Amino acid sequence: MDTKFLKTFVTVAESGSMAAAARRLNITPAAVAQQIRTLERQMDASLIRRAGRTVAVTEAGARIIERSKKLLRDVDDMHAVAVDDSVGGELRLGAGGTSLTGIIPDILARITRQFPRISIFIQTGLSIDLHRAVEKGELDAAVVLEAPFALHKRCCWQLIREEPLIVLAPSSMEGCDPHELLASQPLIRYDRNWWGGHLVDEYLHQAGIEPRERFELSSLHAIAVMVDRGLGVSLVPDWARPWPEGLNLARLELPLEFEPRRIGVVWNRSSVRIRLLQAFLEHVREIETGSA
Asked: Looking at the whole model, is its pTM more than 0.85?
């Protein structure tokens, strides 16, 4: 069995359409369909169900999808071991939304300049999901929030930056009391399903503030834009730049001492891509210390 066909199957399943999978694989939709048909003949089972322009996995496809992903990871791992005489190959990373725009680009710019043969796969998602993916070996490392639980013994953690909570308000409210704003103005709340949103909830409880909630959003960039438009104020981590351009905001420090949001990198010490991982971690340390 050609593992290339398995990769096509997994890509189609993840993309939801032949056309989208073709774009990701840089082949034609006809080639995607041919590879799926060939794989189905080899498996003697229908794996993909077509419905107009979209597709979904069949019951048989669902039974083999996770094993297919694991097999593909194992093949990548064998390749990484075979070429371990130099720093090259694929590194699989995870990143949250603000990390992807604020921290990851600087690290990648450094590492790809030094090691142009590196290929990097980036998976986005919630910190808790990325922690689990690193633990299971699906990712080599991830830039995530510090976990509120003990890490698995095969995982390590390194702090990159701390982000204290601040009140975001329209610039006309510069100099106002932040607690008074949180109590009197409509609150654009940071999503409580996110770990950073949990910190916001804890601070409001500690300060004894019952806000007038207007919206609840998971995107810090969207929150900043809505505050700029005068829709309310917000309590958020002071996240890494860049922020949306053209905003006119007041950033108010809080009067109570409170733990910051902590962002760092978690990695799997048993990764076969350890040389790539070590290079990545070295550049993370340079970002942390502000080295050129």
From this structure: no
